[in-house]
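Cross-check.
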Amino acid sequence: MSLEQENFVDVIRQIPAVPSILDVVCRATGMGFAAVARVTNDRWIACEVLDNIDFGLKPGGELRIETTICNEIRDSRDAVVIDHVAEDAAFCGHHTPAMYGFQSYISMPIILADGSFFGTLCAIDPRPMKLNTPETVGMFKLFAELIAVHIDARSKMLSSQQNLADEREKREASQDELALAQNELMDERTASELREQFIAVLGHDLRNPLAAISGGTSLLLRRTEDEKSKTILLMMTASVQRMSGLIENVMDFARGRLGGGLTLTKENKSPETIIATVIDEISSAWPNRKIERIFDLDHSFDGDHARLGQLLSNLLGNAITHGAEDQPIRVKAATSEQGFTLSVSNGGAQIPRETLERLFQPFQRGEGRSSLQGLGLGLFIASEIARAHGGTLEVMSDDTETRFTLNVLGDGSSH
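Predicted model, tokenized:
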């Protein structure tokens, strides 16, 4: 079985990173529709889609190839970036924007290792958007390369499986030989390259421009007196904070799943400073939400305090997303000779039992407000941080309160 014989929709949907990539693309650009498309000489097939504007295209759906700009990209292999169709000399009279009703468009070719053209990573929106920047174009290019790496890995796996099937027809393979062949499919060097490439995309090429945006909004907040401008800047600050947390969570998830795991850098000191700092940062980004704090932190705690701050930030983000806006969020923290406890509670609707059972699994999201939804990694990363400290993270939810509680016995050493 070769890649050409496979259903391309299934191939792309079997890559766990693709939904996350489309989510990051839409969040970073403000675009309402993003897709990975397979483009051939006579077909345009949507393999995976994130549709927040009711464009109406689902995975497996097709557009007539001659009505798409991707048809031209297949021949030129050059990215197409349009900030505003109406003001773009090359595309203001083009039939595709008029047919599908978009004003902003970006499409990056996906080129496989053998030089063949697979398709495109593209996004559209009926509103004009600022897309033609080095940061946005670079992000699309890196994500397109990452998708190509996954497709090539899938192709190699299918080819190896075909070779194994052929060998089985020629002779009876021993169990040891079969195990060896399967191990060879998981080549350590390939896994290492995937890990480093994926983490580099998120760790450098996305965090650097995000830091620049954060610094710019902080500077403007200090200089402006206009209340409307302040409101907009505070909204931007909250978005930057959520994007930063999303990037950190995806990086930690990549390390854990692709190798390396969570690392701890321990210090024996009171956790009060990091807890107070995280609460202050969240409060500044969400000034309309009340966060109460109850501390009993007279003892020191030997743990990774930066990771504990990340855990608290994820729990507070979850409380803001899903908690009742008219009720306070409560943070309780205590240290003792027995260990360290931290809880975050909020009012609101009870979490359904079926949701509770999978709450700490990756890519699981509750029914919160869609504009605040993340990738579903925050609680998973929080539970991994708890486990790395030899502790537990538990949840209790009823009609009056939802409470997450971290318990670490002893000094935070991993069991």
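The first helix runs from residue 8 to 13. The chain has twelve helices and 13 strands. Passed to J.P. for a second look.
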